């Protein structure tokens, strides 16, 4: 079977991992890096030494600094940081084919304008068919060929079906959905809760607290998701509960590791160690969206308060423990 032409925008850890997946069954997969020098280094080294050291880039992957590489692609995977998506989508407008699928693989919400990433795509790329790919998937695991399953969502069922068939491999299985918004909410929110789980771990609160925190984080995610129109099966699925459990349970998650460093006393400015922690950009906008929808999210609020220096980690933990007892919901 000939596979649809596919290009990848964003050459960090996840961009490389997805390009390697897409290279299975394709002769050539363009991989765009925003810095031409970075593209040249990837082409020479055949690995991303900064973001994914030691894991080779597949032979069919063609790193480039030229955004016109997406011209003939019927599928474009957008794997840049969430806060960079608007500028990249805007620049891609002149090159993207009419009716090409533009698949959001970043996890976040636009901070300044309070927009979901699919809203950015609708505004900046009117010719695109928007979709999102999200679920439990560490780039290094996927690059090593370890198995996982994620969700690909598009409002058009036929597009979701095509994408699931075009991107899936034996070890990277895509389940399809038409609940695009639900998938976006799960991916964005789990990063904030992973920071909270990391803080609990860093503070040494123990395994019981860790499990309680995941369950109450899921309650917050579900409340917000329902208020914003997400479907239950999405919230309970790979992109919701699945990714929450992964990211709240492993220091392989950069968001968890960031929270853990904060719990151990690191300053906010130092805790990420220079790594991308999407939850730090999402916490405030998530809380604002929840407040606008009249939804209570005390764990997300605590993360936001700590990141904006309104509360210490210990004061936030105290505030969560002192909340009035209530029925479970
Ligand atoms: N890593 C993972 O396991 C997973 C990540 N994701 C999501 O994928 C997205 C990207 O993450 P990931 O690849 O891991 O992050 P990385 O930090 O590994 O890579 C980000 C890449 O984006 C580049 N970049 C930075 N700013 C811009 C910009 N303004 N325009 C274009 N490119 C830019 C960076 O370049 P430079 O190196 O020059 O700074 C880097 O190559 C995030 O939203 C993340 O949540 C989703 C699932 C799994
Ligand atoms: O989204 C991810 C796993 O599904 C990656 O998580 P981090 O961005 O926290 O590393």
From TrEMBL:
Substrates-to-products reaction catalysed: sn-glycerol 3-phosphate + NAD(+) = dihydroxyacetone phosphate + NADH + H(+); sn-glycerol 3-phosphate + NADP(+) = dihydroxyacetone phosphate + NADPH + H(+)
E.C. code: 1.1.1.94
Residues holding NAD(+): 10-15, 139, 254, 275
Catalytic residues of the enzyme: 190 (proton acceptor)
Chief location bin: cytoplasm
GO MF terms held by the record: glycerol-3-phosphate dehydrogenase [NAD(P)+] activity; NAD binding
Annotated positions binding substrate: 107, 254-255
Residue numbers binding NADPH: 14, 34, 107, 139, 254, 276, 278
Domain named Glycerol-3-phosphate dehydrogenase NAD-dependent N-terminal: residues: 6-159
Keyword field contains Nucleotide-binding: yes
Matching InterPro entries: 6-PGluconate_DH-like_C_sf (IPR008927), 6PGD_dom2 (IPR013328), G3P_DH_NAD-dep (IPR006168), G3P_DH_NAD-dep_C (IPR006109), G3P_DH_NAD-dep_N (IPR011128), NAD(P)-bd_dom_sf (IPR036291)
Annotated pathway: Membrane lipid metabolism; glycerophospholipid metabolism
Binding positions (sn-glycerol 3-phosphate): 107, 135, 137, 190, 243, 253-255
PROSITE patterns tied to this protein: NAD_G3PDH
UniProt keyword Isomerase, yes or no: no
GO biological process: carbohydrate metabolic process; glycerol-3-phosphate biosynthetic process; glycerol-3-phosphate catabolic process; glycerophospholipid metabolic process; phospholipid biosynthetic process
Subcellular location: Cytoplasm
Keywords: Cytoplasm, Lipid biosynthesis, Lipid metabolism, NAD, NADP, Nucleotide-binding, Oxidoreductase, Phospholipid biosynthesis, Phospholipid metabolism
Domain of life from the UniProt record: Bacteria
Function: Catalyzes the reduction of the glycolytic intermediate dihydroxyacetone phosphate (DHAP) to sn-glycerol 3-phosphate (G3P), the key precursor for phospholipid synthesis.
PANTHER family in the cross-refs: GLYCEROL-3-PHOSPHATE DEHYDROGENASE, GLYCEROL-3-PHOSPHATE DEHYDROGENASE [NAD(+)] 2, CHLOROPLASTIC
Xref: HAMAP family: NAD_Glyc3P_dehydrog
Protein's recorded name: Glycerol-3-phosphate dehydrogenase [NAD(P)+]
The species this protein was found in: Methylocystis parvus
Organism classification: Bacteria, Pseudomonadati, Pseudomonadota, Alphaproteobacteria, Hyphomicrobiales
Chain's gene name: gpsA
